[in-house]
């Protein structure tokens, strides 16, 4: 009987595993991300933007894009019911929560309201290589201004942030288009706003041009497409002629100088589309007159953005240099940020249109790009004070090092010195500080350079030679410890 109980308990142990589409992250990556975020934060605050935090959960109907349905309440988002039977969902971006916040606090906010926010967002979508269900975004938004200057400011600010992170001109470009222009094209091919479902399919298809190419997008504009895994995506059911007209508009691509005549030829007499062209021209003109050239901010008709709530200009920051993909092939890194104008989002709550524009940086993608360019920076070197004899004294030594701006920890595990040195190696420590009873009595400490010691151990051929090569280890007076550690760290 007791044996059966033990087996049952053993069988009930959970398996240590990650949910699909999620990942653990190491301390080094987190530290690098923190530095990236702080750099962007500094640029955004220099423009006068202030932080805002909203909850990770929102009521699902407040998110707007993925509402629960009878068959699958979790479609697109991760959802649950709270204790009063209300559906709540993990936020899928930081913009929909902002719209809820503005609607709830509208009377008390300055107009325009300018905020930045960084945080995790969640997508209940099919995961794949490099495509996770949880990731970090960094947003900046201006709510309450319909001026093209508000859009232009975001574009210039993102350029400044990318350069503050170490990227040079020519390594990035912020592309801009307008959904208002595309709306005119979609209306002309029989996809007015009332055709919500088919129009949404077409918009999401167009947004995948860089990934699927012309052939893949053409299939999604028509009957549909089966991907490499065998999954079938329903198309927008457009005729070949209608799909071809959309593709002709997208293939105009980048336009320079006064692009208005080229775009007016496409949209014809459509008043709203022509107004969108003028608005786009004003945004670009504002950027040019503030010193941002075509190599930094460039109009491009292929930029669409897939979310349904965009109503006007849309932007996408792309990195132009090549990196190696998982198959070892060189590919252009691509998009690291996107956004646009969403003048109708707050109106879902208030019934009153409130102009708004924003841009969101994909922090994980940008971090990967900076890592590939060697622009991440290094964590401060670590010094470990070994536990030898009086541990209280070891803590005092570490405290003195930290007071001098040195990253230091006191070892708190086993007293065995070989185990402590192994720990220091695994922690990739630069130095260890040792103060045993004898050193303490003499008023000295011994400092060992682990990096130099590792290099010397590769070159010496005998123990005698190793003992003679004492440059990797020095004993100094207790009061000289901080100065010596700084010197050995090159600080």
What can you tell me about this protein's structure?
The protein contains 19 helices and 18 strands. It is α+β, with helices and mostly antiparallel strands and 491 residues long. It is elongated and about 90 Å long. The protein has 2 domains: 27-56 and 91-189 and 238-372, BirA Bifunctional Protein, domain 2, CATH 3.30.930.10; 382-489, Anticodon-binding domain (Rossmann fold, 3-Layer(aba) Sandwich). A hairpin with a 5-residue loop joins strand 11 (313-324) and strand 12 (330-341). It has helices at residues 2-11, 27-46, 60-63, 95-105, 148-164, 179-188, 196-206, 209-221, 240-250, 260-267, 271-289, 347-350, 363-372, 391-403, 417-426, 437-442, 450-459, 463-468, 481-489, and strands at 50-51, 57-59, 79-81, 87-90, 113-122, 134-143, 172-178, 224-226, 232-234, 297-299, 313-324, 330-341, 356-362, 382-385, 407-410, 431-434, 444-449, 473-477.
Number of domains: 2
* Count of individual helical segments: 19
- Under the CATH scheme, which class of the largest domain? Alpha Beta
Distance between the termini: 66 Å
CATH architecture of the largest domain: 2-Layer Sandwich
Main sheet specs: 8 strands, mixed
Give the DSSP E fraction (strand runs of 2 or more residues): 15-25%
Task: Please identify the structural class as seen in this structure.
Answer: alpha+beta
Q: Which geometry do the CA atoms define? A: elongated
- The average pLDDT value, as a whole number, equals 86
Name of the CATH homologous superfamily of the largest domain: Bira Bifunctional Protein, Domain 2
Total strands: 18
In CATH, the topology of the largest domain is named: BirA Bifunctional Protein, domain 2
Strand order in the largest sheet: 1-5-6-13-12-11-7-10
Radius of gyration: 29 Å
Helical amount among residues, as a percent range?
Answer: 40-55%
Low-confidence stretches: 66-72, 456-460, 466-470
């Amino acid at each position: 009987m007791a044996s059966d109980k033990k087996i049952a308990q053993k069988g009930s142990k959970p398996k240590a595993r990650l949910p699909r589409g999620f990942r653990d992250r190491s301390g080094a990556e987190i530290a690098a991300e923190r530095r990236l975020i702080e750099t962007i934060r500094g640029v955004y605050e220099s423009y006068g933007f202030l932080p805002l935090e909203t909850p990770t959960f929102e009521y699902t109907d407040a998110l707007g894009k993925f509402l629960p349905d009878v068959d699958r309440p979790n479609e697109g988002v991760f959802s649950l019911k709270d204790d009063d039977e209300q559906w709540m969902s993990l936020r899928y971006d930081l913009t929909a929560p902002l719209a809820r916040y503005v609607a709830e606090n509208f009377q008390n906010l300055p107009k325009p309201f300018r905020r930045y926010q960084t945080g995790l967002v969640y997508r209940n979508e099919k995961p794949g290589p490099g495509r996770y269900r949880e990731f970090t975004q960094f947003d900046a938004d201006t709510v309450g201004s319909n001026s093209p200057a508000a859009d232009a400011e975001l574009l210039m600010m993102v350029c400044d942030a990318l350069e503050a992170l170490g990227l040079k001109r020519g390594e990035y470009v912020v592309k801009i288009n307008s959904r208002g222009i595309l709306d005119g094209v979609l209306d002309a091919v029989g996809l007015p706003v009332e055709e919500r479902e088919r129009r949404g399919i077409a918009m999401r298809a167009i947004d995948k041009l860089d990934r699927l190419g012309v052939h893949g997008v053409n299939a999604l504009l028509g009957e549909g497409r089966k991907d490499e895994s065998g999954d079938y995506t329903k198309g927008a059911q457009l005729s070949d002629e209608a799909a071809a007209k959309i593709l002709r508009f997208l293939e105009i691509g980048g336009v320079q100088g006064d692009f208005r005549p080229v775009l007016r030829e496409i949209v014809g007499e459509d008043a709203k589309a022509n107004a969108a062209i003028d608005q786009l021209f004003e945004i670009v003109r504002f950027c040019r007159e503030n010193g941002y050239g075509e190599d930094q901010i460039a109009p491009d008709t292929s930029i669409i953005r897939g979310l349904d709530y965009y109503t006007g200009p849309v932007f996408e920051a792309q990195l132009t240099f090549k990196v190696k993909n998982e198959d070892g092939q060189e590919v252009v890194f691509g998009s690291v940020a996107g956004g646009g104008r969403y003048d109708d989002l707050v109106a879902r709550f208030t019934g009153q249109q409130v102009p708004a524009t924003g841009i969101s940086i994909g922090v994980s993608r940008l971090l990967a790009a900076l890592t590939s360019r060697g622009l991440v920076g290094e964590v401060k070197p670590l010094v470990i004070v070994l536990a030898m004899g009086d541990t209280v004294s070891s803590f005092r030594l570490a405290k003195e090092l930290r007071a001098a701006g040195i990253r230091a920890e006191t070892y708190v595990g086993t007293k065995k010195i070989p185990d402590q040195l192994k720990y220091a190696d695994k922690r990739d420590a630069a130095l260890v500080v040792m103060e045993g009873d004898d050193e303490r009595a003499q008023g000295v400490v011994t400092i060992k350079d682990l990096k130099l010691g590792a290099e010397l151990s590769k070159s010496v051929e005998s123990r005698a030679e190793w003992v003679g090569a004492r440059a990797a280890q020095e004993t100094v007076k207790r009061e000289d410890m901080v100065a010596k550690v700084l010197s050995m760290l090159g600080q």
